[in-house]
Design goal:
alpha/beta, seven-stranded mixed sheet, five-stranded antiparallel sheet, 27 helices, 28 strands, 20% strand, BrxL_N, Ribsml_uS5_D2-typ_fold_subgr, peptidase activity
Length: 681
């Protein structure tokens, strides 16, 4: 393996805490233990870039795994060794329970099929997670032949155990120091490698999926749903990376196991683990009818009431499952929560407790090329850092810099804040380190998109209270309001209902004898300088003429359109995108003018709006001859509002009743009237 720049930085920044992730492959399928157990040993013996030391360490790890893990069929051999030698060491998942009959604790070691092993109460009290689901540990198991002679004796006992997780207390200081040596892009790639993936072939959206999967580990009471195709590693992170995560396979559990055992007061999974993940969410079920309601209450407040007093916990709930169809089909036949069990799938109150809906379809199906051969953080160090980050927060220091739009409800705001906080802790964990505008905007966009996906499904179910889904934000005092969409809602070549960013306008040309009518998008950027330039090469002559007319009207009518802003002191870059057979961009003067004004005023144009109109140099508006055709085309392209010159009103009396119900037609009389009606209030 050739070391790259990130490997070299990692070796300097995290000496002793990194491991080559491809070393796992030779052990992954051979020994019956999860990834973090193997990495615990690799981190102990192979945390170096020296190839010879790595090979020597690998031999030790192989020997320990061979000697201390029990394969199926070897149970009696290991028990025999314990009897002959007096004790053996093994790596196994250990659970315990109270035997009320004898007033003592007994442990279970599943790999040896032993369920009545002696264990000291002190050992149980120090490691109480063994009472709920258990954990992997290096166990010293002894055998006492004298006890074996007793009636109902328990000859096997736990002499000592060492949980397979990091015991160091200063992990966050190590993390802070190491993070300083990476740029943001390098750190993101290094994080991806630390969970075993190779970022090189991944899209930005796929990396974002991976980062949001990490959030329940660093943010208390974080609730997440991920649905998508099979084979994309949805449950991998929750099963293999951290001992602080518990995977409920098949989705079936009991209220007692999940929350609290009323008979002895023993706390459940959400109290003992940072993350409880339900795999195969379509099969989620509880043994009691009120199980889903208890979970719903817990997801809202982090509390549940069982018995006398409410109990607080901070474990996050993660639901992962598969689509049997593609996203577009799922949205045609229902909504994206469709694969959930019937008690949840149409319950908007349950959905409201979900902080993020992760688009599993953005992540590729895993194959060999997606697994890294480079260095990453050892899983137990990473898991320990993550669990300590739950006690820190970064949100209060950045909130004054962000202004969220009016569409966010109280629960939306809570969800978005939690997502932003988690992402910032992952990317810039040191509370003393500054958060750049670039990092903050990335986190805000991601948080709004993933929460909006929840809101869109609530809207599809038909509840009026969830109708406004136009999530937006403004960064800084002078920032521009930016609207965040969920890409699966509409295709790129149709007019969406979301407001367009400043400088962007959907427009229809009227067509003519040589050119059919068609849909265009005009995009304008403004900067220092002067003049208007068309970026299209070659620029269609007809479109250049439309731009020239718009530019002259911009200058001559600047006062009434722009107030005290001076257009001649700015340079405008104009780009035309066509979506139909119509390509020459004729008759788009009004669309260009509105885009120029919108960019300079830093105001968005209304969502769902299609604009029609051609200017002449004097500022008057040409007649529209085919208004009915244009209205029908606007409906076909997804527009909800058609903004058209008043001179087309008589023609539109002939529009069919069906079309009139599908589109809101607004008329404008002059340039200023058109601008006011096109811009968002």
């Amino acid at each position: 393996m050739e070391l790259d720049s990130i490997d070299h930085i990692a070796a300097r920044a995290f000496e002793g805490f990194i491991v080559r992730k491809d070393l796992l492959e030779q052990f992954r399928k051979t020994y019956p233990v999860p990834t973090y157990v193997i990495e615990f040993l690799l981190g102990r013996y192979c945390a170096t870039t020296d190839e010879q030391e790595i090979q020597e360490g690998l031999e030790i790890v192989k020997r320990q795994l061979a000697d201390r893990t029990v394969r199926p069929g070897e149970e009696e051999y290991f028990k025999s060794k314990a009897r002959e030698k007096g004790s053996i060491k093994l790596i196994d998942i250990i659970t315990a329970k109270l035997d009320a009959r004898t007033d003592s604790y007994v442990a279970t070691l599943p790999s040896l099929r032993l369920n009545n092993v002696r264990i000291a109460p002190e050992m149980v009290n120090e490691n109480d997670r063994m009472l709920t689901g258990g954990f992997y540990a290096e166990v010293e198991l002894d055998y006492d032949p004298t006890i074996a002679q007793e009636n109902s004796g328990r000859p096997f006992g736990i002499a000592s155990l060492r949980p397979i997780q990091l015991s160091q207390r200063n992990v966050l200081n190590e993390l802070y120091r190491g993070r300083e040596q990476f740029t943001l892009a390098e750190w993101q790639d290094f994080l991806v490698r630390s969970v075993g993936m190779e970022p090189g072939g991944m899209s930005e959206r796929a990396k974002n999926v991976l980062f949001v999967r990490m959030l329940p580990f660093v943010e208390r009471n974080y609730n997440l749903v991920e649905l998508g195709p099979r084979g994309t590693g949805k449950s991998h992170l929750y099963q293999q990376i951290s001992p602080y995560s518990h995977l409920v396979s098949g989705g079936k559990t009991t209220v007692t196991k999940m929350f609290v055992n009323l008979s002895n007061g023993e706390r459940g999974l959400v109290c003992k683990y940072d993350v409880v993940c339900f795999d195969e969410v379509s099969g989620v079920s509880f043994d009691q009818k009120d199980g889903v309601n208890i979970m719903k209450g817990y997801m809202e407040s982090g509390e549940f009431s069982r018995g006398k007093e409410p109990i607080r916990a901070d474990g996050g709930v993660v639901l992962v499952g598969n689509f049997d169809v593609d996203v577009e089909h799922q949205q045609r036949v229902g909504h994206l929560f469709g694969p959930l069990p019937k008690e949840m799938r149409d319950d908007t109150a349950f959905m409201d407790r979900i902080h993020a809906f992760v688009p599993g379809w953005d992540f590729p199906k895993l194959h060999k090329a997606y697994f890294t051969t480079h260095f990453g953080l050892v899983s137990d160090f990473l898991a320990e850092c993550w669990t300590r980050l739950r006690d820190t927060s970064r949100i209060s220091s950045v909130l004054p810099r962000v202004d969220f739009g009016g569409a966010l409800s109280g629960r939306d705001t809570t969800a978005v804040h939690k997502t932003i906080n988690g992402l910032l802790k992952l990317m810039q964990p040191d509370p003393a380190a500054p958060i750049s505008d670039e990092l903050l905007e990335w986190a805000v966009k991601l948080a709004l998109e993933y929460r909006r996906r929840v809101k869109e499904q609530q809207k599809r179910i038909g509840s009026a209270e969830f109708r406004n889904t136009h999530f937006s934000y403004r960064l800084g005092v002078d920032g521009i309001e930016t609207f965040v969409t969920t890409p699966e809602l509409h295709s790129e070549n149709t007019i969406g209902e979301d407001p367009q960013p400043p400088g962007q306008v959907w427009t229809l040309n009227t067509g003519g004898t040589d050119e059919p009518a068609g849909l265009y998008k005009i995009e304008v950027n403004v900067g220092p300088g002067s003049g208007v330039k068309v970026l299209n090469r070659p620029a269609p002559p007809a479109f250049q003429e439309s731009v020239r007319f718009a530019e002259q009207n911009l200058y001559s009518k600047a006062k009434e359109l722009l107030g005290d802003r001076e257009p001649r002191a700015h340079e405008f870059s104009v780009q035309l995108r066509s979506f139909d057979a119509s390509k020459n961009g004729s008759g788009l003067g009004m669309g260009v003018l509105i885009a120029l004004c919108s960019s300079l005023l830093e105001k968005s144009t209304k969502g769902g709006l299609a604009l029609v109109g051609q200017l002449n140099l004097g500022g008057s508006i040409d007649l529209v001859y085919n208004a009915v055709n244009l209205a029908e085309l606007a409906v076909e392209k997804g527009a909800s509002t058609l903004l058209i010159p008043l001179n087309a009103r008589k023609q539109l009396n002939d529009l069919s009743d069906e079309m009139i119900t599908k589109i809101n037609i607004q008329y404008y009389t002059d340039l200023r009237d058109c601008l006011i009606k096109a811009l968002l209030d």
